[in-house]
Design brief:
- The complex is a heterodimer of chains A (about 170) and B (about 230).
- Chain A is about 35% helix and about 30% strand.
- Chain A has about 170 residues and is an alpha/beta fold.
- In chain A, strands 4-5-1-6-7-8 form a 6-stranded mixed beta sheet, sandwiched between helices.
- In chain B, the strands form 2 sheets. Chain B has a 5-stranded mixed beta sheet with strand order 1-2-7-8-9, covered by helices on one side.
- The longest helix of chain B has 26 residues, at about 105-130.
- Chain B is elongated, with a radius of gyration of 24 Å.
- Chain B has helices spanning about 30-40, 60-70, 105-130, 135-145, 175-190, 205-210, 215-225; strands at about 15-20, 20-25, 45-50, 75-80, 85-90, 95-100, 150-155, 160-170, 195-205.
- Classes of the chains: A alpha/beta (about 170), B alpha+beta (about 230).
Chain lengths: ~170, ~230
């Protein structure tokens, strides 16, 4: 079976687990742990979701752990990806951390990527245009996204998949 | 010591097998002569093998010798001569001249011919095996769980060496390991008298190695329907 793999990455609390949860046809496999100082969960290894196309083909979504101390997993998860989605928390974008993640994956992989600004439904969300300017990334599409909304996640994935298609042409 | 130039060994014409993804060339060579020489070299006491390629009967003689060797019918040649000098008469129209140390007898020379036959047989088996080498390598990768894809095979089969190159794409981190595994695999295919001069080139896997356009279109249509 051919397993096309897309990576969902981004800084801590950017919404990676939620993004995968919204689109996956199976209950995603989580490796979330409760953080010591709060009731929030954080991913410590990876998230995993799947969209089956037919009996010979499936799209797999892997979410990276957001915390820096688990970044050794990035090297493993980046293998064989056809593309990646870089999520940015619009309610408090951590530009330097996001750029660091972007640099890692874009230098170690030839896969196309898109940047999705999550939590755009929140009242304190920074506009996509502002985040685009702060990131100073001209070569990739920067999109608005609400990770809890399946349609929004679907649109981000479709933009990425069409980027991959274009790169293959 | 006498010298003889009486046997005429066939020069094989070039054979080229071409399939879409790989090529194996069989270079113009004097295979029979080379292998018989090789066989005799391994027999103590044999000093020189004498033959000539300028006879009009060269093909006929070689065919006879080859038939004899492949069928392992050693009674199809006769051995004449005296101490240190022998004529090997091949069937009815070919000869090989052999000069030896004093004391070497026809039994040793027959043993050398049998050895030549074995070498030819192994050489022939290798040529057959090379026809399926791409499939064999793919099965080898699959059995080892190696994520690598063959891009091109261009091999040249010579008398005593297999040369050319095999191009493979693989993950960057696995390049060296896959190269070593593939070299070992090729080494195991070759009989001892064939030197492995094959170059294995490992290129980094590209996006196209991971997914085809058709597969991607299917995924896009599936996501659109979600």
């Amino acid at each position: 079976m051919m397993k096309a793999k897309i990576l969902v990455t981004g800084d801590f609390n950017a919404g990676k687990t939620t993004f995968i949860q919204s689109i996956s046809e199976i209950d995603p496999v989580y490796t979330d742990k409760k953080m010591f100082e709060s009731e929030e969960l954080t991913t410590v290894a990876m998230d995993f979701g799947r969209i089956t196309v037919d009996e010979d083909l499936a799209l797999y979504l892997f979410g990276t752990p957001g915390q820096e101390r688990f970044d050794f997993m990035w090297d493993i998860l980046k293998e064989d990806i056809i593309g990646f989605v870089l999520l940015v928390d619009s309610t408090g974008p951590k530009i330097q951390n996001t750029l660091k993640i972007l640099e890692f994956f874009s230098t170690k992989s030839d896969a196309p990527y898109v940047i999705a600004c999550t939590k755009q439904d929140q009242h304190d969300a920074v506009p996509v245009e502002t985040i685009r300017e702060q990131l100073r990334v001209d070569s990739a599409q920067v999109l608005a996204c609400v990770a809890t909304d399946r349609e929004s996640v679907k649109q981000v994935l479709l933009v990425l998949l069409r980027e991959v298609l274009e790169k293959m042409s | 010591m006498h010298a003889f130039a009486l046997a005429y060994i066939h020069t094989y014409t070039q054979t080229q097998i071409q399939v879409p993804t790989f090529r194996i060339h069989h270079m113009e060579r004097n295979l029979m002569k080379e292998l018989i020489n090789m066989a005799f070299r391994h027999v103590r006491g044999i000093r020189q093998i004498h033959s000539s390629d300028d006879s009009s009967h060269i093909s006929h003689t070689a065919e006879s010798l080859r038939d004899m060797l492949y069928s392992n019918q050693m009674n199809l040649f006769s051995l004449e001569g005296k101490r240190g000098c022998f004529y090997l008469r091949i069937w009815n129209n070919g000869w090989i001249g052999v000069t030896t140390d004093v004391g070497i007898n026809e039994i040793l020379i027959k043993a050398a011919l049998e050895r030549a036959w074995r070498l030819l047989l192994k050489h022939n088996q290798l040529e057959q095996r090379l026809t399926y080498i791409q499939k064999d390598i793919e099965e080898y990768f699959s059995s080892r769980g190696v994520s690598a894809r063959i891009q091109d095979i261009n091999l040249v089969m010579e008398d005593t060496a297999l040369s050319g190159k095999i191009e493979v794409t693989a993950r960057e981190e696995r390049r060296e390991a896959i190269k070593e595994q593939l070299m070992q695999f090729i080494e195991k295919q070759l009989p001892h008298f064939i030197t492995n001069n094959v170059h294995v080139i490992i290129e980094k896997q590209s996006l196209l190695d991971r997914i085809t356009r058709d597969q991607l279109m299917k995924i896009i249509r599936r996501v659109e329907r979600l």
